[in-house]
Hints:
This protein has helices at about 10-15, 30-45, 60-75, 125-135, 140-145, 160-164; strands at about 20-25, 50-55, 80-85, 90, 95-100, 115-120, 145-150. It is α/β, with parallel strands linked by helices and about 160 residues long. It starts with 7 loop residues before the first helix and ends with a helix. Strands 1-7-6-2-5-4-3 form a seven-stranded mixed beta sheet, covered by helices on one side. It is globular and about 45 Å long. About 35% of the residues are buried.
Amino acid sequence: MVELVLTDKQMEYIDDKTRHLVVLGSAGSGKTLFASIKTILYGLEHPNARIGVFRQTLPSLKKTAWLEIRKLLDKLGVIYKENKSDGVITFDNGSTISFIPLDDSRKVRSLNMDFIYIEQCEEISKDSYDELTLRVRGEVQANDFGQILSVVQPESKSHWLYQR
Length: 164
């Protein structure tokens, strides 16, 4: 069994159930690793959960969160199926992780999600973020908790994230 080592600060928030959780830090600080672990744990602990992982563009998403989650699943020996053309990972317990770019806001309409992870949230518009907040309305989260986990690198204090 592989043991994951988290920092004290990461351990403090791994079980956090706050509706909006923001992970802020500089490049290389472990934000994506933490978010990937939290995303995987949600899927493993919540059968039939619908999880969405978002970033502004698909190429960026593939090089960051999607890659990190797949590496972690393999490292942990978690059994999963992957449909690369649809961008979906499925666990044996029925939970799915869908990787969706936000270059077209119509892609998220009508989605019902239990957990959302936004990589590099500062890249997306306030309208895209607001649309995603409406999507956490799945059946699984109604019985426990739903979360929007936003990973950001520090931006200007005038950015919409700071005002939020």
